[in-house]
Amino acid sequence: MTDAASPAPRPGTVVPDHRGRTGLDLTGRELNGNPDVRVVDVELVASAWHVLRRTTLDYRGPDGQWTRQQRETYDRGNGATVLLYDLARRTVLLTRQFRYPVYVNGHPDGMLIETAAGLLDDDDAITAIRREASEETGVRIGEIEHVYDVFMSPGSVTERIHFFAAPYDAGTRTGAGGGLEEEGEHIDVLELDFDESLAMIRDGRIQDAKTIMLLHWAAIDGPFARVTAAPGEK
Q: Is the separation of the CB atoms in 133 and 74 below 8 Å?
């Protein structure tokens, strides 16, 4: 009598997944920056496109006692977003596209209004957002301002988004935008009066977090605040 065959290793561990990746179960095992956290095990749950992991860790609380915990993390890589604005005409350039996750969670039609954004893939943040802005809005970004870097959903999603702002005008709009057809993107480009965009936050027409953050930044600390500030003020 022979033992049952051992289960085949999950793709993405010691054998490549469909994207050729291996070692996806190793992420986090090397962490040593927090003496109150010890990573015990990392399990690769899924790697259909992005990566879902279940990590077992020991955590030492304020009372000095260690407890064993598990956390699931969804790793889709990091991203970047940019607010495109025209100070002279007091407008912003946004996008609208179908987002199934918001549709299934109560958005009336899933057509979300957003700032141009995308994953970094293998690029640095500035290169990536120049690419995404061109693909989605047709704008060739010149001068660009870094705003901040933000973890958007730290309870379960590892993604950090790099926020930028950049001016645009008729001369920098070199294409129609709309996204990449081969990636199934169908993106509408919306040019909105800046004050109207703020009103759209208040009445719920704009519900995307990164877009709300950048529009409020633009009004409080960013380009629209600066142009209306009194002499000697920011």
A: no
Q: How many residues would you count in the chain? A: 234
Tokens, residue 48: 């259909």
The sign of the torsion formed by the CA atoms of 170, 171, 175, 178 equals negative
Say how many Å lie between the first and final Cα of the chain, rounded: 81
- Which residues contact residue 20 at a Cβ distance below 8 angstroms, ignoring those fewer than 6 apart? none
CA distance 110 to 98: 5
pTM across the whole model: 0.90
From the CB of residue 144, how many other CB atoms can be counted at a distance below 10 Å? 15
Residue in the block written with tokens 């529009």 = 215
* DSSP reduced 3-state for 41: strand
Q: What is the pLDDT of residues 24-63, one digit of tens each?
A: 999 999 999 999 999 999 999 999 889 999 999 999 999 9
- For 15-40, the DSSP string reads B--TTS---TT-TTTT--S-TTEEEE
- pLDDT(1) > 50: no
Contact 40, 58 (CB under 8 A): yes
pLDDT, one tens digit per residue, over 122-152 is 999 999 999 999 999 999 999 999 999 999 9
